[in-house]
Input
Amino acid sequence: MSNLDRAPALRLGGGLTDVAPRPVYEVFAGKEVLLGESTMVRRLLPNLGRRLVGAWCFVDHYGPDDIASAPGMQVPPHPHIGLQTVSWLLDGEVHHRDSLGSDQLIRPGELGLMTAGHAITHAEQSPVPHPALLHGVQLWVALPSDALTTPAAWQHSAALPVIDARGGTVTVIMGDVDGARSPGHAHSPLVGADVAVQGALRLPLEPGFEHAVLVMSGSVTIDDEAPLGPGAMAYLGCGRPDLRLTSDLGARMLLLGGAPFEEHIVMWWNFVGRSNDDIVAARAEWMDGDRFGDVDGFDGYRLPAPDLPPGRLKPGGATR
Ligand code: MN
Output
């Protein structure tokens, strides 16, 4: 998915200033953002209080939406640099196509992992016909400096490790949980998992990671905190060996975590770079250049880049 905001802000992130070295519990409500003409998403990252959780730098949660008589997701070709996109569905289907020639239908329980590296272009659409319900998350992972020039790649994994435990199941989307490892290729230490709780589940964590939990459906109690409902995210800090998750009626949540991302990054629109100049160059080359390829067979227009905001921001400066 794309950031379709027509006036996106230039955002700085990374570094250790905002990382809680010990367990905390901070709840964020998603901010509603209209994607295109019809799709409303809840943006959990970045938000006013937090930019990254490990290398995870962008989290949109959408649905469940009834799109039986609607076009559903319609995101025309747009560029990315410096990040990976992780597509994860609970309901529905998304048709992914990119400038590598990838042409893939993503279904619930399947990982769609796109590595932008230096440059990639992709489009995402609800197929025709499509299931009535659409429900999922779109996630971005910031790439470390040594992966910024890595070749663009597309990876689709239909069979992910699933841990069946008393009190629930854990599907490992990225990284590993309790020794069960996702085939998804990550460039820094991180974890992403879909956790279905029915009753009480103990979820082991890597204490060196910072973590957050996004509730996608139902209601869950984390340790002894107040119940967390759908669409809300709790930032948990570092230093937790595990979580106690309780949901009598059942809940689905997304666990995100990773080693604190020490590098300072600059994010704007669909780009993650290290400097203002990285962003300016990528924008210019998307609008008038040959750095980004095309999505063959896409019937429609490429998404034009918004105007750059005034002013300059530099990573690692006084402005966080
Ligand atoms: Mn995208």
Remarks:
- The longest strand covers residues 242-258.
- Residues 276-287 form the longest helix (12 residues).
